[in-house]
Amino acid sequence: MVRSARVDRYTFGAVQLGHWCIRWDPPNLFKHINLLSRPKPQRLLRQSAALRHRLPLRRRRPPPNAYYNYQNNPYYQSDPNTLRRPTLLRRLLALVIGLIVVFAAITFIVWLVLRPQLPQFRVDSFSVSNFTLGNNSLISFTSQVRLTARNPNKKITLSYDHIDAVVFYRSSSLSDTVVPPFSQDTKSETSLTANFAAVGTFVDQLAVNGINNERGSRGTVGFNLRMLSRVRFKAKAWRTRHRLLKVFCGDLVVGIPSNGRPGTLTGGPRQCRVGI
């Protein structure tokens, strides 16, 4: 009876192993048939039990790279918001780049058509009278500077706010004044006059020593003139915002041999540097 039960279990295990080989492992079918020809019931029963446990796991085994390749995984659903963010950023970046390119192209075309140029300034005369410099570092004088402002543009007019003008000796300020506002048409020149006056203005000792040395050696004093103004460029419908115009007229040598003597500009008119 025991032997009969073992044979029945052996037969059942062999049949189960054969079914499994035919269905899941056809290439090794003959290997398993050879195994069946050997009467080892206990081994076959153990293999049959192992196969019964492994069979459901093999059926549920996912395809290769299922959890690493999201595109081939039918159970993975990507977040639509995550996909929209890179697309939105790319569109915004493309829009910003497009606006920059369009603005640069418009600016370049306007520059080609109008060809804007900076105005030109020239000092025509610089006269000084009643110039006195005492040992107490106090300076007094009156001065008049005549300038010419020129607009070299063919299609652009200029509009100036008031001009702040300052007379320097090296880096020491001696006197300042204001020139009234004015406008200029295309290809035009405007004469300007700036009047300066200083009465007992204190200057540092370095400036006093420098002025006395120049008057004693050459009989002249070199001054500097600086002007600041807000200017606007206009061309029919095209207008710019106000720009800060800087004008510097350096090395204005005036003959002043001694105190109380008048002096004038030597060496003729001087061209000034202009910048924005």
Automatic annotation (TrEMBL):
It comes from the Eukaryota. It is found in: Membrane. Keywords: Membrane, Transmembrane, Transmembrane helix. The chain crosses the membrane at residues 92-114. InterPro entries: NDR1-like. PANTHER family: LATE EMBRYOGENESIS ABUNDANT (LEA) HYDROXYPROLINE-RICH GLYCOPROTEIN FAMILY. This is Late embryogenesis abundant protein LEA-2 subgroup domain-containing protein. It comes from Rehmannia glutinosa. The lineage of its organism: Eukaryota, Viridiplantae, Streptophyta, Embryophyta, Tracheophyta.
